[in-house]
């Protein structure tokens, strides 16, 4: 829904076997007035895309959780639906990293086998996990992660009737049987080998086949989960990163300035003494959560070669994000602040909303949620305060609280530009 709202000129089609999910989706489509979304209650095995030439097919959290026949059909649908230059995104549990989780799943399935009710299964699983924590130190980290997961996540992964992890080479071979080829990982930084030791990097660079190289990376990383991009087998693919292409993109970053460069939230660093690169990253960091066009950052650099090269390295290190469509947001509340129709709808019924960067944000306070429902772009500060007068605050407190809330919503990427 966030993509459909952000790209009104595009068409979206979705299928699900759960009638409740489809019905909720249709109600949301109607509430938001989206004319570019079609949702259908249909199993993958029974689905044949009427419209060909899709740019993207997304199957997130589906492949490993399907029986073999349905997995075949999923990849066949990807092939049938994709147009020229189209990309399919398929996520799945990967080996060898999922071996320990697979053992835990077997134990939880054994423990809850006599129970059919999903809620009771979850309760029994949560009661059993602490016993494993005490009895088998080897799986302590994995058990702690499971205990912190949501009920929905636990039910979907560990308690699902089907959950088959695969080696990457098996997935790539399966895709090949359906006329698809490996393109890349959705997270570019997951493909990088430069973070390994010199000896490992040299050994991996000798592997010409990208599929085999990725499999060796899984061995070395113990990767548990993949988000793989596929395209049609006959498409020409150039996997050589080209820094000059960044000039047509926008960049955003949460990195912070350090003495010798920048450091991201996950600890990744970019060290440089290039003043153009330092100035560009500083400008992008100040714009967060908005994005800045690379061509604007490179205005003082003829050709922008050094900046594009540095930004590509930063992207490979997960220090920056790149955008074809920069999120249409602002961090400065205007005279009549506005958020999206989707956010207003979500805030009216819960505390989790989808921001303009398409990530989920939890709004903890009642004032923030109430305020979001009012930000349709028609109200100035006075009108907003008038709507909020039933809140137990003085006029001055309400005025100050309103401004702080608006600033906070801007930092959460919830204000529309």
Keywords:
alpha+beta, 4-stranded mixed beta sheet, single chain, 417 residues, 14 strands, 3-stranded antiparallel beta sheet
List the helices and strands and how they pair.
Layout lengths: L1 H5 L5 E5 L2 H14 L4 E5 L12 E6 L8 H14 E12 L5 H13 L6 H18 L4 H8 L3 H7 L10 H10 L2 E6 L12 H8 L4 H12 L3 E8 L17 E3 L3 E3 L2 E3 L5 E3 L3 H13 L4 E2 H4 L7 H12 L4 E3 L17 H7 L4 E3 L5 E3 L3 H9 L6 H7 L7 H17 L6
Parallel strand pairs: 1-2, 3-4
Antiparallel strand pairs: 4-6, 5-6, 7-11, 7-12, 8-9, 9-10, 13-14
Helix pairs in contact: 5-6, 14-15
Helices and strands: which structural class? alpha+beta
Give the tally of structural domains: 4
Please report the number of helical segments.
17
* Global geometry: globular
Strand order of the largest sheet: 3-4-6-5
Query: Which stretches of 5+ consecutive residues score pLDDT under 50?
Result: none
User: What's the alpha carbon Rg, rounded to whole Å?
Assistant: 24 Å
Overall number of strands = 14
Molecular structure report:
- With 417 residues, this protein is α+β, with helices and mostly antiparallel strands.
- The protein has four domains: 62-98 and 165-240; 103-156, no CATH class; 243-323; 341-411, no CATH class.
- 43% of the residues lie in helices and 16% in strands.
- The protein has helices spanning 2-6, 19-32, 68-81, 99-111, 118-135, 140-147, 151-157, 168-177, 198-205, 210-221, 275-287, 294-297, 305-316, 341-347, 366-374, 381-387, 395-411, and strands at 12-16, 37-41, 54-59, 82-93, 180-185, 225-232, 250-252, 256-258, 261-263, 269-271, 292-293, 321-323, 352-354, 360-362.
- The protein has a four-stranded mixed β-sheet, covered by helices on one side. A three-stranded antiparallel β-sheet has the order 11-7-12.
- It is globular, with a radius of gyration of 24 Å.
- The two termini are 19 Å apart.
């Amino acid at each position: 829904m966030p993509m459909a709202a952000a790209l009104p000129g595009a068409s979206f089609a979705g299928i699900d076997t759960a009638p409740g999910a489809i019905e909720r989706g249709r109600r949301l489509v109607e509430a938001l007035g989206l004319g570019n979304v079609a949702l259908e209650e249909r199993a993958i095995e029974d689905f044949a895309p009427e419209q060909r030439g899709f740019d993207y097919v997304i199957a997130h959290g589906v492949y490993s959780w399907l029986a073999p026949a349905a997995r075949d059909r999923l990849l066949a649908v990807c092939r049938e639906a994709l147009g020229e230059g189209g990309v399919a995104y398929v996520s799945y549990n990967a080996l060898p990293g999922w071996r320990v989780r697979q053992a835990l799943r077997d134990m939880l399935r054994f423990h809850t086998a006599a129970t059919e009710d999903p809620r009771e299964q979850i309760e029994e699983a949560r009661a059993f996990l602490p016993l494993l924590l005490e009895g088998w130190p080897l799986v302590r980290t994995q058990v702690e992660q499971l205990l912190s997961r949501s009920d929905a996540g636990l039910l979907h992964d560990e308690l699902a009737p089907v959950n088959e992890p695969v080696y990457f080479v098996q997935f790539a071979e399966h895709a090949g049987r359906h006329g698809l080829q490996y393109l890349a990982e959705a997270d570019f930084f997951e493909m990088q080998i430069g973070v390994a030791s010199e000896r490992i990097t040299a050994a991996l660079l000798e592997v010409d086949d990208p599929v085999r190289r990725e499999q060796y990376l899984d061995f070395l990383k113990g990767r548990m989960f993949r988000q793989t991009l596929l395209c049609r087998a006959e498409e020409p693919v150039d996997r050589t990163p080209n820094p000059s292409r960044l000039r047509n993109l926008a960049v955003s970053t949460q990195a912070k300035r350090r003495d010798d460069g920048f450091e991201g939230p996950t600890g990744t660093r970019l060290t440089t003494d290039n003043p153009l690169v330092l100035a560009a990253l500083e400008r992008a960091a100040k714009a967060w959560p908005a994005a800045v066009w690379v061509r604007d950052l490179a205005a003082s650099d003829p050709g922008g070669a050094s900046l594009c090269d540095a930004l590509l390295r930063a992207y490979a290190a997960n220090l920056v994000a790149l955008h074809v469509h920069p999120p249409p947001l602002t961090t400065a509340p205007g005279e009549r602040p506005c958020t999206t129709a989707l956010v207003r709808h979500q805030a009216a019924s819960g505390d989790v909303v989808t921001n303009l960067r398409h990530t989920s944000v939890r709004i903890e306070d009642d004032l923030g949620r109430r305020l979001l429902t009012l930000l349709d772009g028609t109200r100035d500060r006075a009108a907003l305060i008038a709507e909020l007068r039933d809140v137990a605050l003085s006029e001055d407190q309400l005025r100050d609280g309103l401004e702080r809330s608006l600033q906070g919503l801007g930092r959460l990427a919830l204000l529309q530009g």
